Amino acid sequence: MQLRRISAAFVAAPGIRDLFDREGIPFTPVNKINWPSYPYLPEVAVRMALGNDALLIHYRVSEQAVLARYATDGDKVWTDSCVETFIRPNGAEGYYNIECTCIGTLLIAYGAGRNERQPLSTELLESVDRWASLGRQPLGLIGTPTIWELALALPYTLFGDHSPQVSSGEFRLNVYKCGDDLPTPHFVSLFPISAPAPDFHRPDCFGKPA
After folding, report:
1. Does the predicted TM-score (pTM) go above 0.85?
2. How many Å apart are CA 165 and CA 148, to the nearest integer?
3. CA gap 180, 178 in Å, rounded
4. Could you tell me the strand order of the sheet in which 82-89 lies?
5. What is the mean pLDDT of residues 144-153?
């Protein structure tokens, strides 16, 4: 996956898609099925870039059903239609899990493993600018094929002491699409995962963006 720098003033989330189009930032498919018990593969693609002030991410998803119940940051976002980017800055002991639903509800935490997560403050979560093509209000279950997009502008200040590494692109990552409570649960990734059961908290399986 490419990770380019874009020299631009602050970019609001609604403008990320058009900016990436103008700059020719390509999508990378998120299409690794790691567990045969969960064979469904929605169409998922991601692209990202380093802005002047923020890490910019744009997801595009086409799936057979969409679930969007949670509107409060920090809720069980992974059970709705959810895209996730996990980032481990170079030299850091832990990693950030950045999980966001199709309506822009966020969960972000930092820690060394699945059971050692420290949620980011409400103030930091509110600093993340978001755009969701489906809007920001809960939709319940849409049981028909749906295409949706999501864009995030993650200020480098979000990453605290690790902001220099993130702003320089010095990190490893993985990107996921999941939805535990969808009619067809699925757990797909950008880089392959070696684990006996669905588990995204595997920094040993993170890859380096090009």
Report:
1. yes
2. 31
3. 6
4. 32-33, 187-189, 171-178, 82-89, 95-101, 106-111, 118-119
5. 98
What string of DSSP letters covers the chain?
Answer: --EEE---S---GGGHHHHHHHHTPPPEE--EE--TT-----EEEEEEEE-SSEEEEEEEEEES-EEE---STTS-GGGSSEEEEEEEETT-SSEEEEEEETT--EEEEEESSTT--EEPPHHHHHTSEEEETT-SS--EEE-S-EEEEEEEEEEGGGGGGGHHHHHTT-EEEEEEEE-TTSSS--EEESS----SS-----GGG-B---
Q: Which CATH number fits domain 3-191: 1.10.579.10, 2.60.40.1190, 2.40.40.10, 3.40.50.1820?
A: 2.60.40.1190
Q: 109 vs 9, which has greater pLDDT? A: 109
Give yes or no for a contact between 7 and 52, defined as CB atoms under 8 angstroms apart: yes
- For the chain, what are the domain ranges? 3-191
pLDDT over 70, % of the chain: 100
Smallest Cα–Cα separation from 198: which of 173, 176, 169?
A: 176
Residue where the block lists tokens 């489906």 = 134
Q: Are 114 and 199 in contact (CB under 8 A)?
A: yes
